[in-house]
Amino acid sequence: MACNAVLEAFEAASALPITVTCGAEETLLPGRDNTCRCKTCIIYLHGGGLLFGSKDDLPLPYRRLMSDYGHTLITLGYPLAPETPAQDLVSVTTHAIESLIRTARNLGYARVVLFGRSAGAWLALQVCARLQRRACDAQIDALWSFYGYPALNEDWLHEPSAAYMALPTVSDAAVAPFLAAAQTGVYRHSYITEADPLTRMQLYIWGRQNGKWLETLGLRSPDEANELSLSPEDIAALPPLFLAASTGDEDVPLGASKRLARGAPYAVMHQVYYLPHDFDRDITRPEGLQAYQAALNFLDSLPNLAATRKTTT
Q1: Other CB atoms closer than 10 Å to residue 191's CB: what's the count?
Q2: Which of 74, 138, 279, 294 could form a disulfide with 275 if both were Cys (CB 3.0 to 4.6 A apart)?
Q3: What's the rounded Cα separation, in Å, for the pair 151 and 157?
Q4: Are 213 and 207 in contact (CB under 8 A)?
Q5: Tens digits of pLDDT across the chain (313 residues)
Q6: CA 15 distance to own-chain centroid
């Protein structure tokens, strides 16, 4: 099937904006020969604290590497908080990804991989768990979690962050309009999938400086945070999982990835040393490309894992 037909099929399936990319000039990614010879479809969710970010933020060298392996890459723009509360954000994204999975199966893809960075990794885990709880026929075959976390009920998310407290203080007045939107849900039916990071980053910094990031997501109680946190049973039911994180992560504790890896039925942990949270942002350093190469090698190993994966009933 020609790449244009593949692109049209995915665009028709998604109610949210997507980009399908192939190399430096195109914005779609089947193989370099312009035919859809791919067996794996990778769906990407960006980071940004669920408050900002872009579906097109994945650096070109990593997209090219996936292309060289013949994999299709779909980057998805999901609704952002505070205009869309976290519960709604997860539901809308799950519906969109379920539709993309069904389309990928109809197009002949053997595997669908869900890939997230930072908050996008949390969202990917949420989507995967929801699909599994429903036992529907649209399931994720593997997960990539780059410096992510499985839960919103962990202590570090409810306490001021030392790294963010070292930055200039963001005042309550500066974020008051955003918090009003989160509390009223006034924009609930008008999704924003991209936003100015300079403005929205201030909201994230305020949340982390005050231990109130969850408030910016429209969450008001521990019960709501628990509902958006994977249980040990959820983690034990995950598909094969590749994790990448740095020992120098100042934003998300490395332990979040390690605990997730220990609880999953099959996980590979790729650890880098002394680099910041989003260690793959600096494409001049080798660690980023090495992590993506390891993630792709992980996918190559999956056909041999069927007999070793745990099953749940």
Answers
A1: 18
A2: 279
A3: 9
A4: yes
A5: 557 778 889 999 999 999 996 432 333 444 444 444 458 999 999 999 999 999 999 999 999 999 888 899 999 999 999 989 999 999 999 999 999 999 999 988 889 999 999 999 999 999 999 999 999 999 999 999 999 999 999 999 999 999 999 999 999 999 998 888 666 655 555 689 988 888 899 999 999 999 999 999 999 899 999 999 999 999 999 999 999 999 999 999 999 999 999 999 999 999 999 999 999 999 999 999 999 999 999 999 987 544 444 333 2
A6: 18
Q: Is residue 297 a contact partner of residue 268, using CB atoms and an 8 Å limit?
A: no
**What Å distances lie between residue 303 and 63, 111, 229, 298, CA to CA?**
23, 10, 30, 10
Residue 58 CA, chain-centre distance (Å), reads 12
Chain center to CA of 77: 11
Q: What does the alpha-carbon distance between residue 249 and residue 279 come to, in Å, rounded to a whole number?
A: 8
Burial of 11 per CB tally in 10 Å (0-12, 13-18, 19+): middle
Enter the DSSP assignment of 37: -
What is the domain partition of the chain in residue ranges?
Answer: 3-155+224-300
Q: Are 37 and 70 within 8 A, CB to CB?
A: yes
Say how far apart CA 80 and CA 52 lie, in whole Å.
7
Alpha-carbon gap, residue 23 to 150, rounded angstroms:
32
Residue 73 pairs with which residues in a beta bridge? Answer: 42
Residue 205 neighbours by CB under 8 Å, 6+ apart: 164, 167, 170
- Encoded tokens for 28: 């779609």
CA 158 to chain centre: 21
How is domain 3-155+224-300 classified at the architecture level of CATH? 3-Layer(aba) Sandwich (3.40)
